[in-house]
Design a protein that fits this description.
It is a single chain. The chain is mainly α and about 325 residues long. It is built from 14 helices and no strands. α3 packs parallel to α6. It is globular and about 55 Å long.
Length: about 325
């Protein structure tokens, strides 16, 4: 297992080195700081998405679900569209990025918290009730966003369209610092619950029989997932299928139940996918497409493959 983790680490380091050094032209003082900021955003976002997806799939005991089903991506797009629709694009462009980031993260966490409170308030409600409600709200937010996008000025729609796709080119350094601090704090808190993941993967009944306070643990893991996904989405934008793709590749590559290896490998695979995707976007397509389009296309095809595979099984 450690050898496989080492291989993934070497591949990720090589890709990062290529991305940092290719076509620098000797302008190191100009090129390196800008590429370093982009690489840090890739490492943080990729790790967050892989980490949260792996835990979410463990809780739901389902490998074709991702945290985006709760509707956080749709809520982020709704927030950005709402601001432009009622206040104009100048408000969004003039607003301090830190304030916009904190408002977006805060509203997404508040929404997820209300969903979780609804889930755990009554007896007999399981995780799939949460997914159903989240899916309904996600559809509602998408519909409201589409309605407002039809009515706004075409020039302002371009601002909304820019927020619809993940972008690593305009990440604010201050936002990176805030994000790293928040993620580091969550990881410290997560260490308390890491030991339960292997047991949770057995299912609710088995976990309860083995002495796990299931509702207590799952509620806190879901809150951590909501915070992490909100940070990643507000930082670079929505990337729907990345978590699904890297988590399932990690399952197949590692072929183990131990989450310490699965989480590490999925984070490294996510970084490899994002850095490789950035190289393809910049060097092959010359910025004629976006990274999220490539990731969502590959992830969507892989999602269909998983559905057909499960149906055949």
């Amino acid at each position: 297992m450690k050898a496989k983790i080492g291989i993934l680490a070497v591949v990720s380091v090589v890709l990062i080195a290529i991305f940092m050094l290719i076509d620098a032209g000797g302008n190191w003082d100009y090129v390196l700081p800008r590429r370093l900021k982009k690489i840090l955003a890739v490492i943080l976002t990729g790790s967050i998405i892989a980490f949260s997806t792996m835990i979410f799939q463990t809780i739901t005991n389902n490998r074709i679900l991702t945290p985006s089903i709760i509707g956080l991506d749709s809520l982020y797009l709704f927030i950005q569209t709402f601001v432009i629709f009622f206040m104009g694009s100048t408000t969004l462009t003039m607003m301090d990025k830190n304030i916009n980031f904190l408002i977006s993260v805060g509203l997404m966490i508040l929404f997820a918290g209300l969903l979780y409170k609804l889930l755990f308030r009554g007896e007999g409600r399981n995780i799939y009730f949460l997914l159903l409600v989240g899916l309904i709200f996600g559809t509602l937010f998408n519909s409201l966003s589409s309605f407002m996008q039809v009515l706004i000025d075409p020039n302002e729609f371009l601002i909304v369209q820019d927020r619809m796709f993940a972008s690593f080119n305009n990440v604010n350094t201050d936002l990176l610092v805030i994000s790293f601090v928040l993620v580091f704090a969550i990881l410290i808190y997560f260490r308390k619950f890491a030991k339960y993941l292997d047991v949770l993967s057995l299912g609710r009944d088995e976990a309860v029989n083995l002495g796990v306070d299931y509702d207590y643990v799952v509620k806190r893991l879901l809150i951590m997932i909501a915070i992490l996904v909100s940070i990643a989405t507000a930082l670079v934008g929505p990337i729907t299928f990345l978590g699904l793709l890297v988590a399932n590749v990690a399952y197949q590559f590692m072929n183990t139940y131990r989450h310490s290896y699965l989480i590490a490998s999925s984070c490294l695979i996510s970084i490899i996918a994002l850095v490789g995707g950035l190289l393809i976007v910049e060097r092959v397509f010359t910025f004629s497409t976006t990274l999220s389009v490539i990731v969502n296309f590959i992830g969507g095809v892989y999602f269909i493959y998983l559905l057909l595979k499960e149906n055949k099984a």
